[in-house]
Amino acid sequence: MKKISLAGLILFVFILANYRISNGCTNFLITKGASVTGSTMITYAADSHTLYGELYFQPAQDHPAGAMRDIYEWDTGKFLGQIPQPAHTYSVIGNMNEFQLAIGETTFGGRSELSSQTGAIMDYGSLIYVTLQRAKTAREAIEVMTNLVDEFGYYSSGESFSIADPEEVWILELIGKGEGEKGAVWVAVKVPEGYISGHANQARITTFPLSDKENCVYSDDVISFAREKGWYNGTNKDFSFSDVYAPVDFGAARFCDARVWAGFNKVAKGMEQYVGYAKGLIEHGENNFASNRLPLWVKPEKKLSVQDVMEMMRDHFEGTELDMTQDIGAGPYQLPYRWRGLTWEVDSTEYCNERAISTQQTGFSFVAECRDWLPDPVGGILWFGVDDAYSTCYVPMYCGITEIPECFAVGNGDMLTYSETSAFWAFNWVSNFAYLRYSDMITDVQKVQNQLENKFVSFVPAIDKAATDLFHSEGETQARKFITEYSVNEANNMTQRWKELGQYLLVKYMDGNIKREKDGKFERTETGLPPGPLHPGYPEWWYKAIVNSTGEHFKVIGGAGH
Fold first, then answer.
1. Whether residue 502 has a cis bond before it, omega within 30° of 0
2. Transmembrane stretches, by residue range (predicted)?
3. Could you give the CA distance from residue 247 to residue 228 in angstroms, rounded to a whole number?
4. Over the stretch 424-480, which tens digit does the pLDDT of each residue have?
5. Residues 485, 469: Cα–Cα separation, whole Å
6. pTM
Protein backbone atom coordinates (compact mmCIF):
# COMPACT_ATOMS: atom_id res chain seq x y z
CA MET A 1 0.00 0.00 0.00
CA LYS A 2 1.32 3.45 -0.88
CA LYS A 3 1.90 5.91 1.91
CA ILE A 4 -0.46 8.91 1.70
CA SER A 5 0.59 12.30 3.02
CA LEU A 6 -1.57 14.05 5.62
CA ALA A 7 -2.32 16.84 3.11
CA GLY A 8 -3.35 14.31 0.49
CA LEU A 9 -5.55 12.44 2.96
CA ILE A 10 -7.30 15.65 4.06
CA LEU A 11 -7.97 16.63 0.47
CA PHE A 12 -9.25 13.14 -0.42
CA VAL A 13 -11.64 13.09 2.54
CA PHE A 14 -12.86 16.55 1.56
CA ILE A 15 -13.50 15.43 -2.02
CA LEU A 16 -15.43 12.35 -0.92
CA ALA A 17 -17.54 14.39 1.47
CA ASN A 18 -18.29 17.17 -0.98
CA TYR A 19 -18.95 15.64 -4.39
CA ARG A 20 -21.47 17.09 -6.83
CA ILE A 21 -20.90 20.81 -6.33
CA SER A 22 -20.85 21.57 -10.03
CA ASN A 23 -23.69 22.93 -12.14
CA GLY A 24 -24.92 25.30 -9.47
CA CYS A 25 -22.42 28.01 -8.63
CA THR A 26 -22.13 31.80 -8.94
CA ASN A 27 -18.96 33.94 -9.25
CA PHE A 28 -18.37 37.69 -9.38
CA LEU A 29 -15.01 39.29 -10.13
CA ILE A 30 -13.96 42.75 -8.91
CA THR A 31 -10.88 44.60 -10.17
CA LYS A 32 -8.67 46.91 -8.09
CA GLY A 33 -10.08 49.94 -9.86
CA ALA A 34 -13.63 48.91 -8.97
CA SER A 35 -13.03 48.42 -5.24
CA VAL A 36 -12.98 51.00 -2.47
CA THR A 37 -9.65 49.89 -1.02
CA GLY A 38 -7.86 48.91 -4.23
CA SER A 39 -8.13 45.20 -3.48
CA THR A 40 -9.16 42.60 -6.02
CA MET A 41 -12.02 40.28 -5.13
CA ILE A 42 -13.73 37.16 -6.44
CA THR A 43 -16.79 35.41 -5.02
CA TYR A 44 -17.93 31.81 -5.13
CA ALA A 45 -21.08 30.04 -4.00
CA ALA A 46 -20.76 26.24 -4.06
CA ASP A 47 -24.36 25.17 -4.46
CA SER A 48 -25.23 21.49 -4.10
CA HIS A 49 -27.87 19.52 -2.27
CA THR A 50 -25.16 17.08 -1.12
CA LEU A 51 -22.35 19.49 -0.25
CA TYR A 52 -21.33 19.74 3.42
CA GLY A 53 -19.78 23.12 4.16
CA GLU A 54 -16.21 22.76 5.43
CA LEU A 55 -12.93 24.64 5.15
CA TYR A 56 -9.80 22.63 4.51
CA PHE A 57 -6.09 23.25 4.79
CA GLN A 58 -3.30 21.99 2.57
CA PRO A 59 0.05 22.82 4.22
CA ALA A 60 3.14 23.85 2.30
CA GLN A 61 5.30 20.82 1.67
CA ASP A 62 8.61 19.75 0.15
CA HIS A 63 8.55 16.66 -2.06
CA PRO A 64 11.41 14.28 -2.91
CA ALA A 65 12.38 13.61 -6.51
CA GLY A 66 9.92 11.20 -8.13
CA ALA A 67 7.06 11.92 -5.72
CA MET A 68 3.61 11.55 -7.25
CA ARG A 69 0.24 13.05 -6.38
CA ASP A 70 -2.99 11.05 -6.59
CA ILE A 71 -5.81 12.73 -8.53
CA TYR A 72 -9.40 12.06 -7.50
CA GLU A 73 -12.37 13.42 -9.41
CA TRP A 74 -13.85 16.35 -7.48
CA ASP A 75 -17.47 15.35 -8.08
CA THR A 76 -17.27 11.65 -7.19
CA GLY A 77 -14.01 10.88 -5.41
CA LYS A 78 -13.13 8.46 -8.23
CA PHE A 79 -9.40 7.79 -8.57
CA LEU A 80 -8.21 9.09 -11.95
CA GLY A 81 -4.45 8.68 -11.86
CA GLN A 82 -1.24 10.32 -10.71
CA ILE A 83 0.83 13.34 -11.67
CA PRO A 84 4.37 14.24 -10.58
CA GLN A 85 4.77 16.53 -7.61
CA PRO A 86 6.97 19.63 -7.88
CA ALA A 87 9.82 20.06 -5.42
CA HIS A 88 7.65 22.36 -3.27
CA THR A 89 3.92 23.05 -2.96
CA TYR A 90 2.34 26.09 -1.32
CA SER A 91 -0.11 26.20 1.58
CA VAL A 92 -3.77 26.59 0.66
CA ILE A 93 -6.71 27.63 2.82
CA GLY A 94 -9.98 26.83 1.06
CA ASN A 95 -9.73 28.35 -2.44
CA MET A 96 -6.88 30.77 -1.65
CA ASN A 97 -3.18 30.13 -1.27
CA GLU A 98 -0.51 31.82 0.82
CA PHE A 99 0.39 34.21 -2.02
CA GLN A 100 -3.18 35.55 -2.20
CA LEU A 101 -3.97 33.64 -5.40
CA ALA A 102 -7.69 32.74 -5.38
CA ILE A 103 -9.64 30.55 -7.81
CA GLY A 104 -13.39 29.90 -8.13
CA GLU A 105 -15.49 28.18 -10.77
CA THR A 106 -18.85 27.54 -12.35
CA THR A 107 -19.63 24.64 -14.67
CA PHE A 108 -21.25 25.48 -18.01
CA GLY A 109 -21.17 22.04 -19.60
CA GLY A 110 -21.19 23.07 -23.25
CA ARG A 111 -21.31 20.72 -26.23
CA SER A 112 -22.08 17.24 -24.92
CA GLU A 113 -19.77 15.57 -27.46
CA LEU A 114 -16.82 17.26 -25.73
CA SER A 115 -17.69 16.14 -22.20
CA SER A 116 -15.65 12.90 -22.08
CA GLN A 117 -12.04 12.08 -22.91
CA THR A 118 -10.75 8.56 -22.34
CA GLY A 119 -7.53 8.48 -20.35
CA ALA A 120 -7.86 12.04 -19.08
CA ILE A 121 -6.80 12.72 -15.48
CA MET A 122 -7.38 16.39 -14.67
CA ASP A 123 -10.96 17.24 -13.68
CA TYR A 124 -11.93 20.84 -12.97
CA GLY A 125 -11.72 20.55 -9.17
CA SER A 126 -8.25 19.03 -9.28
CA LEU A 127 -7.17 21.80 -11.63
CA ILE A 128 -8.11 24.38 -9.01
CA TYR A 129 -6.46 22.78 -5.99
CA VAL A 130 -3.36 21.50 -7.74
CA THR A 131 -2.85 24.94 -9.28
CA LEU A 132 -3.26 26.73 -5.95
CA GLN A 133 -0.39 24.60 -4.65
CA ARG A 134 1.85 25.48 -7.62
CA ALA A 135 1.15 29.06 -8.80
CA LYS A 136 1.71 32.49 -7.27
CA THR A 137 -0.10 34.77 -9.73
CA ALA A 138 -3.20 34.69 -11.92
CA ARG A 139 -1.15 34.58 -15.12
CA GLU A 140 0.96 31.75 -13.74
CA ALA A 141 -2.23 29.92 -12.70
CA ILE A 142 -3.59 30.07 -16.26
CA GLU A 143 -0.32 28.63 -17.55
CA VAL A 144 -0.30 25.85 -14.94
CA MET A 145 -3.93 24.90 -15.55
CA THR A 146 -3.70 24.80 -19.33
CA ASN A 147 -0.38 22.92 -19.25
CA LEU A 148 -1.89 20.32 -16.92
CA VAL A 149 -4.79 19.58 -19.27
CA ASP A 150 -2.44 19.49 -22.27
CA GLU A 151 -0.20 16.94 -20.56
CA PHE A 152 -2.72 14.82 -18.67
CA GLY A 153 -6.03 15.40 -20.49
CA TYR A 154 -9.21 17.15 -19.30
CA TYR A 155 -11.75 14.95 -17.52
CA SER A 156 -14.67 17.40 -17.03
CA SER A 157 -17.17 19.28 -19.18
CA GLY A 158 -16.99 23.03 -19.92
CA GLU A 159 -15.87 25.25 -17.06
CA SER A 160 -15.49 28.95 -16.26
CA PHE A 161 -12.77 29.83 -13.75
CA SER A 162 -12.38 33.08 -11.78
CA ILE A 163 -8.70 33.72 -11.04
CA ALA A 164 -7.44 36.61 -8.93
CA ASP A 165 -4.19 37.79 -7.42
CA PRO A 166 -3.56 41.15 -5.68
CA GLU A 167 -3.03 42.88 -9.05
CA GLU A 168 -5.26 41.24 -11.68
CA VAL A 169 -8.52 39.37 -12.18
CA TRP A 170 -9.02 36.93 -15.06
CA ILE A 171 -11.73 34.68 -16.46
CA LEU A 172 -10.56 31.42 -18.00
CA GLU A 173 -13.09 29.38 -19.98
CA LEU A 174 -12.13 25.89 -21.01
CA ILE A 175 -13.77 22.86 -22.61
CA GLY A 176 -12.32 19.45 -23.49
CA LYS A 177 -11.78 18.17 -27.02
CA GLY A 178 -13.82 15.00 -26.63
CA GLU A 179 -13.02 11.38 -27.45
CA GLY A 180 -10.03 10.68 -29.65
CA GLU A 181 -8.41 13.97 -28.63
CA LYS A 182 -6.37 15.15 -25.67
CA GLY A 183 -6.52 18.37 -23.69
CA ALA A 184 -8.84 21.33 -24.11
CA VAL A 185 -9.55 24.48 -26.07
CA TRP A 186 -9.68 27.62 -24.00
CA VAL A 187 -9.56 31.39 -23.80
CA ALA A 188 -8.68 33.67 -20.88
CA VAL A 189 -9.38 37.39 -20.64
CA LYS A 190 -8.31 39.96 -18.07
CA VAL A 191 -11.15 42.02 -16.59
CA PRO A 192 -10.38 45.71 -17.36
CA GLU A 193 -9.48 47.97 -14.44
CA GLY A 194 -12.50 49.68 -12.93
CA TYR A 195 -14.87 46.96 -14.13
CA ILE A 196 -16.54 43.89 -12.63
CA SER A 197 -17.54 40.63 -14.24
CA GLY A 198 -19.43 37.47 -13.36
CA HIS A 199 -20.44 34.00 -14.50
CA ALA A 200 -23.01 31.47 -13.30
CA ASN A 201 -22.98 28.12 -15.14
CA GLN A 202 -22.99 29.61 -18.64
CA ALA A 203 -19.92 30.40 -20.72
CA ARG A 204 -19.56 34.18 -20.92
CA ILE A 205 -16.62 34.95 -23.23
CA THR A 206 -17.87 35.70 -26.72
CA THR A 207 -15.50 37.44 -29.18
CA PHE A 208 -12.02 38.23 -27.88
CA PRO A 209 -8.93 40.17 -29.06
CA LEU A 210 -6.61 37.99 -31.13
CA SER A 211 -3.51 40.20 -30.82
CA ASP A 212 -3.48 41.49 -27.25
CA LYS A 213 -1.48 39.01 -25.18
CA GLU A 214 -1.37 41.45 -22.27
CA ASN A 215 -5.12 41.13 -21.80
CA CYS A 216 -6.09 37.93 -23.60
CA VAL A 217 -4.48 34.51 -24.09
CA TYR A 218 -5.95 31.44 -25.75
CA SER A 219 -5.09 28.00 -27.06
CA ASP A 220 -3.60 27.91 -30.53
CA ASP A 221 -6.45 25.77 -31.86
CA VAL A 222 -9.44 27.39 -30.12
CA ILE A 223 -10.81 28.55 -33.50
CA SER A 224 -9.34 25.94 -35.86
CA PHE A 225 -10.71 23.09 -33.75
CA ALA A 226 -14.24 24.49 -34.14
CA ARG A 227 -13.70 24.80 -37.90
CA GLU A 228 -12.54 21.17 -38.12
CA LYS A 229 -15.69 20.06 -36.34
CA GLY A 230 -17.88 22.09 -38.70
CA TRP A 231 -19.20 24.34 -35.92
CA TYR A 232 -17.88 27.62 -37.30
CA ASN A 233 -17.08 28.98 -40.77
CA GLY A 234 -16.92 32.76 -40.19
CA THR A 235 -13.94 35.06 -39.80
CA ASN A 236 -11.51 34.68 -36.91
CA LYS A 237 -12.31 38.13 -35.52
CA ASP A 238 -16.04 37.24 -35.27
CA PHE A 239 -15.45 33.93 -33.51
CA SER A 240 -17.40 33.69 -30.22
CA PHE A 241 -16.13 31.09 -27.75
CA SER A 242 -19.41 30.87 -25.85
CA ASP A 243 -21.72 30.82 -28.86
CA VAL A 244 -19.73 28.06 -30.55
CA TYR A 245 -18.84 25.83 -27.61
CA ALA A 246 -21.80 26.54 -25.28
CA PRO A 247 -24.72 28.10 -27.22
CA VAL A 248 -27.26 29.98 -25.13
CA ASP A 249 -30.76 28.57 -24.71
CA PHE A 250 -33.68 29.45 -22.41
CA GLY A 251 -32.19 27.66 -19.41
CA ALA A 252 -28.75 29.24 -19.90
CA ALA A 253 -30.32 32.70 -19.87
CA ARG A 254 -33.08 32.27 -17.25
CA PHE A 255 -31.35 29.94 -14.79
CA CYS A 256 -27.72 31.02 -15.25
CA ASP A 257 -26.99 34.41 -16.82
CA ALA A 258 -29.99 35.88 -14.96
CA ARG A 259 -27.94 35.54 -11.78
CA VAL A 260 -25.11 37.57 -13.28
CA TRP A 261 -27.68 40.15 -14.40
CA ALA A 262 -29.09 40.30 -10.85
CA GLY A 263 -25.65 40.91 -9.34
CA PHE A 264 -24.81 43.56 -11.92
CA ASN A 265 -28.22 45.16 -11.34
CA LYS A 266 -27.35 45.77 -7.70
CA VAL A 267 -24.34 47.95 -8.50
CA ALA A 268 -24.50 49.17 -12.11
CA LYS A 269 -26.81 51.33 -14.21
CA GLY A 270 -28.47 50.32 -17.47
CA MET A 271 -29.26 46.72 -16.66
CA GLU A 272 -32.98 47.16 -17.41
CA GLN A 273 -32.21 46.74 -21.11
CA TYR A 274 -31.30 43.10 -20.41
CA VAL A 275 -34.47 42.13 -18.54
CA GLY A 276 -35.84 40.25 -21.54
CA TYR A 277 -32.67 38.21 -21.89
CA ALA A 278 -32.66 37.45 -18.14
CA LYS A 279 -36.21 36.11 -18.58
CA GLY A 280 -35.00 33.76 -21.32
CA LEU A 281 -36.13 35.77 -24.36
CA ILE A 282 -33.20 35.27 -26.73
CA GLU A 283 -32.77 37.31 -29.90
CA HIS A 284 -30.57 35.88 -32.64
CA GLY A 285 -28.31 37.77 -35.01
CA GLU A 286 -25.49 36.94 -37.41
CA ASN A 287 -24.26 33.30 -37.33
CA ASN A 288 -27.43 32.61 -35.30
CA PHE A 289 -25.56 33.83 -32.20
CA ALA A 290 -27.60 35.43 -29.41
CA SER A 291 -27.51 39.18 -30.05
CA ASN A 292 -28.96 40.54 -26.80
CA ARG A 293 -26.61 38.92 -24.30
CA LEU A 294 -25.25 40.51 -21.15
CA PRO A 295 -21.90 42.28 -21.48
CA LEU A 296 -18.97 40.32 -20.09
CA TRP A 297 -18.17 43.17 -17.71
CA VAL A 298 -19.76 46.39 -16.49
CA LYS A 299 -18.56 49.48 -14.64
CA PRO A 300 -20.19 49.78 -11.20
CA GLU A 301 -21.90 53.05 -10.31
CA LYS A 302 -19.52 53.45 -7.38
CA LYS A 303 -16.48 51.62 -6.09
CA LEU A 304 -17.39 48.54 -4.10
CA SER A 305 -16.48 47.59 -0.53
CA VAL A 306 -16.13 44.00 0.57
CA GLN A 307 -19.58 44.28 2.16
CA ASP A 308 -21.04 45.54 -1.12
CA VAL A 309 -19.66 42.42 -2.78
CA MET A 310 -21.12 40.23 -0.03
CA GLU A 311 -24.48 41.82 -0.78
CA MET A 312 -24.11 40.93 -4.46
CA MET A 313 -24.15 37.31 -3.31
CA ARG A 314 -27.37 37.91 -1.38
CA ASP A 315 -30.11 38.20 -3.96
CA HIS A 316 -33.46 36.66 -4.86
CA PHE A 317 -34.17 39.10 -7.72
CA GLU A 318 -35.75 41.52 -5.21
CA GLY A 319 -37.23 44.60 -6.87
CA THR A 320 -37.19 43.09 -10.38
CA GLU A 321 -39.71 41.28 -12.57
CA LEU A 322 -38.26 37.99 -11.32
CA ASP A 323 -38.67 38.87 -7.60
CA MET A 324 -39.11 35.56 -5.79
CA THR A 325 -40.79 37.16 -2.77
CA GLN A 326 -43.80 38.52 -4.68
CA ASP A 327 -45.63 35.64 -6.40
CA ILE A 328 -48.00 33.29 -4.62
CA GLY A 329 -45.29 30.63 -4.47
CA ALA A 330 -43.61 32.71 -1.75
CA GLY A 331 -46.53 31.96 0.57
CA PRO A 332 -47.81 34.29 3.26
CA TYR A 333 -44.33 35.07 4.62
CA GLN A 334 -42.57 35.97 1.34
CA LEU A 335 -40.26 32.96 1.31
CA PRO A 336 -37.86 33.43 -1.64
CA TYR A 337 -37.22 29.70 -2.09
CA ARG A 338 -38.90 26.99 -4.15
CA TRP A 339 -38.18 23.39 -3.37
CA ARG A 340 -36.80 21.49 -6.34
CA GLY A 341 -37.20 20.51 -9.14
CA LEU A 342 -36.32 23.56 -11.08
CA THR A 343 -39.04 22.93 -13.67
CA TRP A 344 -42.51 21.44 -13.33
CA GLU A 345 -45.58 20.68 -15.44
CA VAL A 346 -49.26 21.56 -15.26
CA ASP A 347 -51.61 20.14 -17.92
CA SER A 348 -48.62 19.09 -20.06
CA THR A 349 -47.20 22.64 -20.06
CA GLU A 350 -43.74 23.15 -18.57
CA TYR A 351 -43.07 25.94 -16.08
CA CYS A 352 -40.05 26.91 -14.01
CA ASN A 353 -38.90 28.20 -10.66
CA GLU A 354 -36.39 31.02 -10.63
CA ARG A 355 -32.77 30.16 -9.88
CA ALA A 356 -31.40 32.98 -7.75
CA ILE A 357 -27.87 33.71 -6.51
CA SER A 358 -28.93 33.00 -2.93
CA THR A 359 -30.21 29.46 -2.67
CA GLN A 360 -31.01 27.08 0.14
CA GLN A 361 -28.66 24.28 -0.96
CA THR A 362 -25.36 26.19 -0.76
CA GLY A 363 -22.66 24.26 1.05
CA PHE A 364 -20.24 27.15 1.40
CA SER A 365 -19.52 30.50 -0.21
CA PHE A 366 -16.78 33.08 0.03
CA VAL A 367 -15.51 36.48 -0.96
CA ALA A 368 -11.75 36.28 -1.58
CA GLU A 369 -10.07 39.64 -1.01
CA CYS A 370 -6.48 40.16 -2.25
CA ARG A 371 -4.56 43.24 -1.03
CA ASP A 372 -1.19 44.18 -2.51
CA TRP A 373 -0.10 46.63 0.20
CA LEU A 374 0.31 43.94 2.86
CA PRO A 375 2.60 40.91 3.24
CA ASP A 376 1.01 37.98 1.42
CA PRO A 377 0.05 35.86 4.47
CA VAL A 378 -1.76 38.89 5.91
CA GLY A 379 -2.98 40.46 2.67
CA GLY A 380 -5.29 37.69 1.56
CA ILE A 381 -8.61 37.20 3.35
CA LEU A 382 -11.07 34.45 2.51
CA TRP A 383 -14.37 35.80 3.87
CA PHE A 384 -15.95 32.40 4.40
CA GLY A 385 -19.51 31.34 5.18
CA VAL A 386 -21.56 28.16 5.16
CA ASP A 387 -25.14 27.48 4.04
CA ASP A 388 -27.33 29.98 2.17
CA ALA A 389 -25.39 33.15 1.26
CA TYR A 390 -28.39 35.33 2.14
CA SER A 391 -28.42 34.25 5.78
CA THR A 392 -24.81 33.24 6.30
CA CYS A 393 -22.19 35.30 8.11
CA TYR A 394 -18.86 35.88 6.37
CA VAL A 395 -15.96 35.56 8.79
CA PRO A 396 -12.36 36.54 7.87
CA MET A 397 -10.01 33.61 7.34
CA TYR A 398 -6.55 35.03 6.62
CA CYS A 399 -4.74 33.17 3.85
CA GLY A 400 -1.65 32.67 6.02
CA ILE A 401 -3.38 30.75 8.82
CA THR A 402 -2.03 27.33 9.74
CA GLU A 403 -5.02 25.83 11.53
CA ILE A 404 -8.72 25.39 10.73
CA PRO A 405 -11.40 26.44 13.25
CA GLU A 406 -13.21 23.49 14.80
CA CYS A 407 -16.50 24.81 13.43
CA PHE A 408 -15.24 24.47 9.82
CA ALA A 409 -13.02 21.40 10.28
CA VAL A 410 -13.14 18.52 7.83
CA GLY A 411 -14.82 15.56 9.51
CA ASN A 412 -16.74 17.62 12.09
CA GLY A 413 -20.07 16.12 11.08
CA ASP A 414 -21.33 15.52 7.57
CA MET A 415 -24.60 15.72 5.62
CA LEU A 416 -25.97 12.77 7.60
CA THR A 417 -24.26 13.42 10.94
CA TYR A 418 -25.27 16.37 13.11
CA SER A 419 -22.49 18.04 15.10
CA GLU A 420 -22.99 20.49 17.97
CA THR A 421 -19.74 22.26 17.10
CA SER A 422 -20.26 22.50 13.33
CA ALA A 423 -20.99 25.88 11.74
CA PHE A 424 -22.80 24.15 8.87
CA TRP A 425 -25.35 22.63 11.24
CA ALA A 426 -25.69 25.81 13.33
CA PHE A 427 -26.46 27.89 10.24
CA ASN A 428 -28.81 25.28 8.78
CA TRP A 429 -30.67 25.11 12.07
CA VAL A 430 -31.32 28.85 11.90
CA SER A 431 -32.12 29.09 8.18
CA ASN A 432 -34.42 26.08 8.04
CA PHE A 433 -36.38 27.31 11.03
CA ALA A 434 -36.56 30.80 9.50
CA TYR A 435 -38.14 29.35 6.35
CA LEU A 436 -41.31 28.73 8.40
CA ARG A 437 -42.01 32.43 9.03
CA TYR A 438 -39.46 34.03 6.77
CA SER A 439 -40.51 37.68 6.51
CA ASP A 440 -40.46 38.00 10.29
CA MET A 441 -37.51 35.81 11.22
CA ILE A 442 -35.12 37.02 8.53
CA THR A 443 -35.05 40.47 10.16
CA ASP A 444 -33.81 38.88 13.39
CA VAL A 445 -31.21 36.89 11.44
CA GLN A 446 -29.98 39.94 9.56
CA LYS A 447 -29.64 41.91 12.77
CA VAL A 448 -27.09 39.43 14.14
CA GLN A 449 -25.51 38.98 10.71
CA ASN A 450 -24.91 42.73 10.43
CA GLN A 451 -23.59 43.02 13.97
CA LEU A 452 -21.01 40.30 13.39
CA GLU A 453 -19.93 41.29 9.89
CA ASN A 454 -19.67 44.96 10.84
CA LYS A 455 -17.47 43.95 13.76
CA PHE A 456 -15.24 41.79 11.58
CA VAL A 457 -14.83 44.51 8.95
CA SER A 458 -14.09 47.18 11.56
CA PHE A 459 -11.50 45.00 13.32
CA VAL A 460 -9.61 44.00 10.17
CA PRO A 461 -7.43 47.17 9.92
CA ALA A 462 -6.20 46.68 13.49
CA ILE A 463 -5.52 42.98 12.90
CA ASP A 464 -3.72 43.85 9.67
CA LYS A 465 -1.47 46.33 11.43
CA ALA A 466 -0.66 44.07 14.35
CA ALA A 467 0.08 41.13 12.06
CA THR A 468 2.20 43.26 9.72
CA ASP A 469 4.18 44.68 12.66
CA LEU A 470 4.83 41.13 13.87
CA PHE A 471 5.79 40.06 10.36
CA HIS A 472 8.49 42.72 10.17
CA SER A 473 9.65 42.65 13.80
CA GLU A 474 9.45 39.00 14.81
CA GLY A 475 9.09 37.16 11.52
CA GLU A 476 6.50 35.43 9.41
CA THR A 477 5.96 32.54 11.83
CA GLN A 478 4.77 34.82 14.62
CA ALA A 479 2.55 36.79 12.24
CA ARG A 480 0.93 33.55 11.02
CA LYS A 481 0.40 32.42 14.60
CA PHE A 482 -1.35 35.70 15.42
CA ILE A 483 -3.72 35.68 12.44
CA THR A 484 -4.44 31.99 13.00
CA GLU A 485 -5.53 32.60 16.59
CA TYR A 486 -7.68 35.53 15.49
CA SER A 487 -9.39 33.70 12.61
CA VAL A 488 -9.97 30.52 14.61
CA ASN A 489 -11.43 32.38 17.61
CA GLU A 490 -13.72 34.58 15.54
CA ALA A 491 -15.09 31.65 13.54
CA ASN A 492 -15.78 29.51 16.60
CA ASN A 493 -17.30 32.45 18.50
CA MET A 494 -19.49 33.28 15.50
CA THR A 495 -20.77 29.71 15.44
CA GLN A 496 -21.63 29.85 19.13
CA ARG A 497 -23.46 33.15 18.58
CA TRP A 498 -25.43 31.55 15.74
CA LYS A 499 -26.48 28.69 18.00
CA GLU A 500 -27.73 31.26 20.49
CA LEU A 501 -29.64 32.94 17.66
CA GLY A 502 -31.31 29.64 16.85
CA GLN A 503 -32.40 29.24 20.47
CA TYR A 504 -33.75 32.79 20.50
CA LEU A 505 -35.79 32.21 17.33
CA LEU A 506 -37.29 29.02 18.74
CA VAL A 507 -38.39 30.77 21.92
CA LYS A 508 -39.73 33.83 20.10
CA TYR A 509 -41.66 32.12 17.29
CA MET A 510 -42.74 28.84 18.89
CA ASP A 511 -46.11 27.44 17.75
CA GLY A 512 -46.81 30.19 15.23
CA ASN A 513 -47.00 32.91 17.89
CA ILE A 514 -44.59 35.78 18.56
CA LYS A 515 -43.36 36.41 22.09
CA ARG A 516 -43.53 40.00 23.35
CA GLU A 517 -40.24 41.88 23.74
CA LYS A 518 -39.17 45.14 25.34
CA ASP A 519 -35.71 46.72 25.32
CA GLY A 520 -34.22 43.63 23.73
CA LYS A 521 -35.58 41.17 26.28
CA PHE A 522 -38.65 38.96 26.44
CA GLU A 523 -41.34 40.48 28.65
CA ARG A 524 -42.58 38.89 31.86
CA THR A 525 -45.50 39.72 34.10
CA GLU A 526 -45.08 40.85 37.71
CA THR A 527 -45.27 37.21 38.74
CA GLY A 528 -42.56 36.17 36.27
CA LEU A 529 -44.82 34.53 33.73
CA PRO A 530 -44.81 35.41 30.02
CA PRO A 531 -47.67 37.65 28.94
CA GLY A 532 -49.96 36.41 26.20
CA PRO A 533 -48.07 36.25 22.91
CA LEU A 534 -48.98 38.07 19.70
CA HIS A 535 -51.14 36.21 17.18
CA PRO A 536 -50.41 38.12 13.95
CA GLY A 537 -52.20 35.70 11.64
CA TYR A 538 -51.70 35.84 7.89
CA PRO A 539 -51.69 38.87 5.56
CA GLU A 540 -55.04 39.82 4.05
CA TRP A 541 -54.00 38.91 0.50
CA TRP A 542 -53.31 35.36 1.68
CA TYR A 543 -56.77 35.00 3.20
CA LYS A 544 -58.26 36.27 -0.07
CA ALA A 545 -56.21 33.72 -2.00
CA ILE A 546 -57.61 30.96 0.23
CA VAL A 547 -61.19 32.11 -0.38
CA ASN A 548 -60.57 32.40 -4.13
CA SER A 549 -59.26 28.84 -4.11
CA THR A 550 -61.83 27.21 -1.81
CA GLY A 551 -65.01 29.21 -2.37
CA GLU A 552 -67.38 28.85 0.59
CA HIS A 553 -65.66 25.83 2.12
CA PHE A 554 -64.50 27.81 5.16
CA LYS A 555 -67.44 30.21 5.28
CA VAL A 556 -68.91 30.74 8.76
CA ILE A 557 -72.65 30.17 8.61
CA GLY A 558 -74.41 33.14 10.12
CA GLY A 559 -71.15 35.01 10.58
CA ALA A 560 -70.12 38.50 9.52
CA GLY A 561 -71.40 39.59 6.13
CA HIS A 562 -74.62 37.54 6.37
1. no
2. none
3. 18
4. 999 999 999 999 999 999 999 999 999 999 999 999 999 999 999 999 999 999 999
5. 16
6. 0.94
